[in-house]
From TrEMBL, chain A:
TM region positions: 23-45, 89-108, 120-141, 153-174, 194-221, 255-278
Name recorded for this polypeptide: Carbohydrate ABC transporter permease
Residues in ABC transmembrane type-1 domain copies: 85-278
Highest taxon, organism lineage: Bacteria
Naturally occurring in which organism (per UniProt): Kineosporia corallincola
CDD domains reported for this sequence: TM_PBP2
PROSITE patterns registered for this protein in UniProt: ABC_TM1 (PS50928)
Location(s), subcellular: Cell membrane
Family: Belongs to the binding-protein-dependent transport system permease family.
Record key words, sorted: Cell membrane, Membrane, Transmembrane, Transmembrane helix, Transport
Keyword Nuclease annotated: no
Automatic annotation (TrEMBL), chain B:
Keywords on record: Signal
Protein name: Extracellular solute-binding protein
Keyword field contains Repressor: no
Record-linked InterPro entries: Bact_solute-bd_prot1, SBP
Source species of the chain: Kineosporia corallincola
Signal peptide span: 1-23
Superkingdom of origin organism: Bacteria
Residue ranges of the TM segments: none
Automatic annotation (TrEMBL), chain C:
Keyword Cytoplasm assigned: no
Name under which the protein is recorded: Sugar ABC transporter permease
Cell membrane keyword on record: yes
Membrane association type: Multi-pass membrane protein
Length: 293, 441, 324
């Protein structure tokens, strides 16, 4: 699994006695895994049910309506759901990508340069972690409205580009993964600062960049308030806001539970695939800042 | 370098702050002007609505009005669209031209300057399409007209006819009979309830007190009065509190998966709701189609014939619209033309407030009630009996106070805490009005 | 820390080392400023200005004339510290703060305890099914809180819950996770479910940076796996635990999505259950953005005070090698 970045300790030189499997340990770990699977399995099962089965049959009993549910969802308002999926990919993908670059640049500057204001700047940026998105949503809306940017892609993308946490992680990764000597050598060869950054520093911190990317990706995908407040046109919604709308229909209409559950399943799947693909990069050492390579 | 960087950051921040802080009032002034439309130019209107299939309903207008094109942006139901509109008004831009607004939200919206007065932009004959009570909801008792009524939602009583037949119960015509029926049903099968008291639906509770003669707010010259804990409201609160205390009706909220399941499984066998209920029942309890019937709401005094309302909404033109006249023209068409009303009733599934065209539009019972031919006759017979009711400028505060106070009361299952909850609502609502500088009598 | 501290602090890259005399000030490099510029610009635009604006709004309020119906009947005026006085004396606010602190005392130890347990198990050679478990336990991190709360809500409601159903079949009555006394634990469970995997990865990463030789030596001395875990591994990951606690604390004080999604399902979650829900209610339902702003500022300051000590501590540890 993690062979590219971590030597697997199981294949070490330990004696056979210590290789004896621990039933208690394995049991505990499997119980933890099962606990984490409970709601996920439920959403798989529930999305195979028709709307009346959803509320009348045993929760974990599957049924055969998955494909008709998917086709109902796809035909809801001419395939609006898929538009939401594309929007989500755009907000989270582009947002996280650009945010990673911004964080890497800032992190690099703060890890490898000494400059007046560095300490203050870092503290101020980091204090941004303390401010919850719910609190920022309204003033951000009022500010964006002045600029005429509400109800556009920019309204969601721009505030997603700054990630105090990403800058924090980037600083850790750069100082851990990029030795000063390498940068110095490049400079001696006459490389400019930007070139040092793009062709020496960035490649050396790829695992860190992937982590920051995923981190910010999840953060954007989790941020419900920002798009909820900023967007009026449902063609611009990300999938979370769209699904929540299907659920909160007001008192005069039934909530579309079947569509919401099927939509929830379909929207989690791509993210799970992304995680599977990139999981070997997932190492976050918050305290020591050590990424072994 | 250090100083200049810090200095410029502060300048940037402060100037942006001033920009955002001071722009508000001047912007909204300039935005409220109606821009003249040149002949042959196409007007684009945005319409925020949460009614189902509103975009299809609007197609009929777009087909016949090539110079005024209306685009529907579907919104979440309930408070969220109002919130978004108020935020956009505060920001000075971002509001749509037209907005579906529930009657109870109108005083708040008008007070925030969110809605335009369209009195001069709609025809004189529009008023004649609506019952007096409905019309006063869109004028707020002033000379202005802030919206065109769209749908009305008189309360009725929905029940499982098969269950009533099985236990040999007559359809209740008074609340006493309702209580007796609820007890009988729960005695026959301890899992069955004739209803639930839901702390999530202040609108329903307000409608029930409306039937009993309450009006939560009132205008007294230049002052507001608040009568949430009036005797009429107390009567309603202790009635439902008593039923919950006796355990003959349920105390869990409506519109939850548990409630859907109970409707579907037949453990919730009655529902006090409004005329739009068939759509909700069909969506949540499809298996019980053809088993439900509707009757007028039970009365407090035998022989009376009054009801309240739960929901109902209007089409308003926002103060930020640059094409107020065109927008008002559309609002009038949607809610008073034969074509618009028919589309509202058959495509968007709402019960039109228009009295002249709705009979022609509503000829057949909803599919879910195909066992009851006279569904819309019952509806029409109660639609004119809605008691008058005044909503206040902080209805939203009263409603959120309801959620918390009655949530606790429903959980405690004590009739006395229901009337205490009413007092809590009253004091919170009055306090909020006062702290905002309203005169309260 | 372990892998970097050994590096010599050459300082060659730093053009202006600490001991630089003042006369060389003019040679301050432009490059680092260019690198931090995008971040600074975005920070000012998306975070700093909105925060300043919130602070401004917290000092304002709306005054109404007459019935408040005509245009211009509501005007924004200075309120001084009125909104703050209102927030700090609001019993709902104070009880929501206490409730959330209690919630934090449940969530953080349970979440980090489980995360540490799983991380140690993942790091143990004797445990099987590690690859599978690591992936599965981490998976909930990919599920947005809005969706995970909806899923758990279904599992909590007695009428549709498979657990209640199964318990009924065998004649057992289960405690209801949304009952008055238990709803805090019901919400905590969702947070633990969503957060344990991420923290597990953090701690696991820290464990993998421990040199294997340490264990070998301990094993030769006759230590059992459990003793190694408790005496060697746990002390070494304590810095990571401190960091995860800080971030756990910040997220806990900001709990919002889970109770908001569950609220319509039960009578037992009020609209001011957590401070952030109250801010949301005031700003969005009650349209009183001014009180909401004051409450936001109070909450942000409280969060800052609580986590400030931790942050300093962490910085000193994490960047010790740079700042020396």
């Amino acid at each position: 699994m993690s062979t590219a970045t971590l030597p697997d300790r199981t294949t070490g030189t330990s004696g056979t006695a210590r290789q004896r499997p621990s039933f208690v340990g394995t049991g505990l770990l499997v119980v933890g895994a099962v606990y984490c699977l409970v709601p996920v399995v439920w959403v798989f099962m529930a999305s195979t049910k028709s709307s009346s089965e959803l509320f009348s049959t045993f929760t974990y009993a599957p049924s055969g309506n998955l494909f008709s549910n998917i086709s109902d969802l796809s035909s809801y308002r001419d395939g609006l759901f898929w538009r939401w999926m594309v929007n989500t990919a755009l907000y989270a993908g582009v947002g996280a990508g650009l945010s990673t670059v911004v964080s890497a640049m800032a992190g690099y500057a703060m890890a490898k340069f000494r400059f007046p204001g560095r300490g203050v700047l870092f503290n101020v940026l980091l204090a941004g972690v303390l401010v919850p998105g719910v609190v920022l949503a309204v003033p951000q809306y009022l500010l964006f409205a002045k600029l005429g940017l509400t109800n556009t892609y920019w309204a969601v993308l721009l505030p997603s580009l700054i990630s105090p946490y990403g800058i924090y992680l980037a600083r850790i990764y750069v100082s851990a993964a990029v030795p000063d000597e390498v940068i110095e050598a490049a400079r001696t060869d006459g490389a400019k600062d930007l070139r040092v950054f793009s062709s020496i520093v960035m490649p050396m911190m790829v695992p860190g960049l992937v982590t920051i990317f995923l981190f910010q990706f999840v953060a954007i995908w989790n941020n419900f308030m920002l798009p909820f407040v900023m967007l009026g046109d449902d063609k611009l919604f990300p999938v979370t806001v769209g699904l929540s709308g299907l659920l909160n229909q007001g008192s005069q209409q039934p909530a579309m539970y079947t569509l919401v559950i099927t939509g929830a399943l379909l929207s989690i799947l791509p993210l799970l695939a992304l995680f599977l693909l990139l999981q070997r990069f997932w190492q976050v050492d918050l305290a020591a800042g050590a990424v072994k390579s | 370098m250090r100083r200049s960087l810090r200095g410029s950051l502060v300048t940037l921040a402060v100037s942006a702050l001033l920009l955002s802080a001071c722009g508000g009032s001047s912007d909204s002034d300039s935005a409220s002007g109606d821009e003249a439309v040149k002949p042959g130019e196409k007007v684009e209107l945005n319409f925020w609505s949460w009614a189902p299939e509103m975009d299809k309903t609007v197609e009929a207008w777009n087909d016949t009005h090539p110079d005024i094109h209306v685009t529907v942006n579907k919104q979440d139901g309930g408070d969220t669209a109002v919130t978004k509109l108020l935020t956009a008004i505060k920001a000075g831009s971002g509001a749509p031209d037209l907005m579906q607004a529930e009657y109870q939200a109108l005083p708040t919206l008008v007070g925030s300057g969110a809605l335009a007065d369209i009195k001069d932009d709609i025809g004189d004959d529009v008023q004649g399409h609506f019952a007096e009570g409905v019309w006063s909801a869109v004028t707020l008792g002033t000379d202005a007209v802030y919206a065109v009524p769209q749908d009305s939602a008189p309360l009725m009583f929905f029940y499982r006819a098969d269950v009533f037949e099985k236990y040999d119960i007559d359809v209740p015509t008074t609340w006493d009979e309702y209580a007796a029926a609820a007890k009988k049903i729960h005695d026959e099968d301890s899992k069955q309830f004739l209803g639930t008291f839901s702390s999530n639906d202040a609108g329903l509770f307000a409608g029930l007190t409306q039937q009993a003669g309450a009006s939560w707010w009132g205008i007294d010259g230049d002052a507001w009065s608040v009568a949430i804990d009036s005797d009429a409201s107390k009567k309603v609160a202790s009635f439902w509190g008593g039923l919950v205390e006796d355990g003959v009706i349920d105390n869990t909220p409506m519109y939850t998966p548990a409630w859907n399941s109970a409707l579907n499984k037949g453990t919730q066998v009655g529902w006090v709701s409004a005329v739009w209920a068939p759509g909700v029942l069909a969506g949540n309890a499809g298996d019980t189609a053809g088993k439900w019937k509707v009757a007028p709401l039970p009365q407090w005094n035998a022989g009376e014939n009054v009801t309240g309302a739960w929901g109902g909404s209007s089409t308003a033109v926002t103060s930020q619209s640059k094409h107020k006249a065109a927008a008002a023209q559309f609002a009038a068409w949607l809610n008073t033309s034969a074509e618009g009303v028919k589309a509202l009733a058959t495509v968007s599934n709402v019960y039109p407030a228009d009295q002249q065209n709705s009979a022609a539009a509503l000829t057949e019972s909803p599919e879910f009630f195909e066992n009851q031919d006279d569904f819309y006759d019952v509806a029409a017979s109660v639609a004119g009996t809605v008691n008058s009711f005044t909503y206040g400028p902080n209805t939203n505060v009263a409603y959120s106070a309801f959620n918390d106070a009655f949530g606790k009361a429903a959980q405690s299952k004590k009739a006395s805490s229901f009337t205490e909850a009413l007092a809590t609502m009253q004091s919170q609502t009055v306090e909020d009005l006062k702290s905002n500088g309203f005169t309260v009598k | 820390m372990t892998s970097i501290t050994s590096e010599p602090n050459s300082g060659t890259v730093r053009r202006v080392p600490d001991q630089t005399p003042p006369r060389r000030r003019s040679r301050v490099p432009k490059a680092p400023y260019a690198f931090v510029l995008p971040a600074v610009f975005l920070f000012v635009f998306s975070i700093a200005i909105p925060i300043l604006y919130t602070a401004y709004l917290s000092l304002r309020t709306v005054k109404v004339e007459g019935l408040g119906l005509g245009p211009g009947a509501r005007t924004e005026v200075w309120a001084g510290l009125e909104n703050y006085a209102g927030t700090l004396t609001d019993r709902d606010f104070l009880s929501s703060v206490l409730r959330v602190l209690g919630y934090g005392l449940v969530v953080i130890p349970v979440m980090l305890g489980l995360a540490l347990l799983f991380a140690l198990l993942l790091d143990s050679v004797r445990v099987r099914a590690r690859r599978f478990s690591r992936l599965v336990i981490f998976m909930p991190y990919a599920v947005p809180a809005v969706i995970s709360s909806l899923l758990w809500g279904f599992l909590y409601l007695p009428a549709v819950s498979p657990f209640t159903y199964a318990a009924d079949q065998v004649g057992v009555t289960l405690p209801q996770p949304m009952a008055p006394g238990l709803v805090l634990f019901g919400i905590a469970n969702i947070a633990v479910w969503g957060g344990v995997g991420f923290n597990m990865i953090v701690l696991y990463t820290a464990l993998r940076s421990i040199p294997t030789e340490l264990y070998e030596a301990a094993r030769i001395d006759g230590c059992s796996e459990v003793q190694i875990a408790w005496r060697i591994k746990v002390p070494i990951v304590i810095p990571s635990l401190i960091m995860t606690s800080v971030f756990g604390m910040i997220t806990t004080l900001q709990v919002f999505a889970e109770p908001t999604v569950l609220r319509p399902l039960t009578n037992n979650i009020s609209t001011s259950w957590s401070p952030l829900m109250m801010i949301y209610r005031d700003a969005f339902t009650r349209n009183d953005i001014y009180s909401a702003s004051a409450t936001s500022v109070v909450l942000a300051v409280a969060t800052f005070v609580l986590s400030f000590g931790f942050l300093r501590l962490v910085q000193n540890r994490a960047f010790a090698q740079e700042n020396r």
